[in-house]
Amino acid sequence: MTRRRALIVEDDPDIAPLIAMHLADIDCDSEISVDGNEAVTVFKNGSFDLVVLDLMLPGLDGLAVCREIRAQPGYVPILMLTAKSSEFDRVLGLEVGADDYLTKPFGIHELLARVKALFRRVDAMQASAGQAGDGQARDGADIEAAVNNGSSRKLIVQGGLTIDPDKRRVVLDGREIDLTAKEFDLLCYFAARPGYVFSRAQLLDQVWGYNHEGYEHTVNTHINRLRAKVEEDPSKPKYIQTVWGVGYKFAE
What we know:
By secondary structure, the chain is of the alpha/beta class. The chain is built from nine helices and twelve strands.
């Protein structure tokens, strides 16, 4: 079995080695960075399968490091660690590109369970991308694999909206739209399956990796922000439509 490699960005001298020791138990070697600036440099110069990222760091904080990582080509899952317990901090971490989060103090078993879930998601996306034979995504999972793994896929065009999964660009009526990483992933997943209705829990599972129990309203926040950016009249959405009592769908 091929060993994976993680970048642990954590300045606590007790926590970082402990995480590294337990990741080794699941065939994952680790490199440790103790501040945000160093972490960005190490990530750019290395090859990693996972980033475990503390929110509070010397130099660049965890949110800034997360943005820097998401600005790089390719996709590496990010598990964010935070000592803050407020909902705002947890949701903000997800919105800037983290795939999951743990609030300190956390149990090692929970940490490993979430890491394994992230690895399973990446493996599934890579398998899905490898099965696409004609270069055109067959469903939402294939589009998501294209987005996260850099595989070439055709443009998605709906009315005046054009989505380029390969370049992670969205153009509306000739004007490029600036989306966060998760806003783009959510829009791309929707657009790949027009007419399909997804519950909030399903969208969390597919776009964030697995269901963050109790955080279905995170989807609402992203939907509202997407509508504000891509809809002419967000109160009467043309693209991202509400199916009352069920969830959301992308217009057919």
